[in-house]
Amino acid sequence: MTIRVLIVDDQAMVREGFSVLLNAMPDIEVIGEAVNGREAVAQVEALRPDVVLMDIRMPELNGIDATREIVAADGDAKVLVLTTFDLDEYVYQALRAGASGFLLKDASARQLADGVRVVAAGEALLAPTVTRRLITEFSRISAAPRTPALARVGDLTERETEVLVLIAQGLSNAEIASHLVVAESTIKTHVSRILVKLGLRDRTQAAVFAYEARLVTPG
C-alpha cells in the first residue's frame, strides 16, 4: 500500500528536495505540495493525503494554525511537523494542536521516510531522543498543570497510568510490553482505553498530556 504525502513548505528547494527523497521510496508517493498553511488546508481537503509534512513558519497561515484546522476538520488526519531548529519554540504548540510528531529538516532520507511510515501507521513519532527532549523542554516552560487535566488522570487505572507514563518517555508498544512483562496486544488495549478516557486523539497528545499533568517531570 502506497503512503500518499502532501509537502507543505514555503521554500521551493525544500519541497523539491523532500519530493525527490520520498518519491525514491517504493512505498511512498508525493501527491501534492503547498506553499503556506492556507493552501495546505485546501490541499488536504482536496487530495486526502495519508500524511502531511508541515513546516511551521510560513506566510498567510503558519503550520500550527494549519495543523489545528486540518485536525479539526478530520480527526484522522496525520501531520508530521518539520522544523529547522531542534529547540523551535513552536514545536510544543504544534504537538498540542494535533500534530503526530515532528522531524528536523536535516533528517536523513531514511529518517524522513521512516517518520512518514510511523505516522501513517497511526503511531506517534516520539522515539527519537530529540523528541523527548523537546517535549520535556516545552513542558518545563508551559503553564502550570491544568486542573481539568489532573482531574482526568483520576479516570485511569493504576496500570493505565503506568502505561501513559511510559508512552510519554517515548517507548513503543513492544517496549512497554517488554518492560511490564505482558503481551503487546494487552498494551494496545491499554493505550486505546487511555485515549478514550482522556479524550485524546493519539499517542502524541497522550505524551503531552502526561507532561502537562506532571505525571512525568522534566529533567
UniProtKB/TrEMBL annotation:
Residue ranges constituting the Response regulatory domain according to the UniProt record: 4-120
Residues with the 4-aspartylphosphate modification: 55
Domain HTH luxR-type: 149-214
Gene Ontology molecular function terms on file: DNA binding
UniProt cross-references to InterPro entries, sorted A to Z: CheY-like_superfamily (IPR011006), NreC/VraR/RcsB-like_REC (IPR058245), Sig_transdc_resp-reg_C-effctor (IPR016032), Sig_transdc_resp-reg_receiver (IPR001789), Tscrpt_reg_LuxR_C (IPR000792), WalR-like (IPR039420)
Xref: SUPFAM superfamilies: C-terminal effector domain of the bipartite response regulators, CheY-like
Any one GO biological process: phosphorelay signal transduction system
Source organism, top-level taxon: Bacteria
Alphabetically ordered keywords of this record: DNA-binding, Phosphoprotein, Transcription, Transcription regulation
PANTHER family: TRANSCRIPTIONAL REGULATORY PROTEIN NARL-RELATED, TWO-COMPONENT RESPONSE REGULATOR
Protein name: Two component transcriptional regulator, LuxR family
Lineage, top ranks: Bacteria, Bacillati, Actinomycetota, Actinomycetes, Kitasatosporales
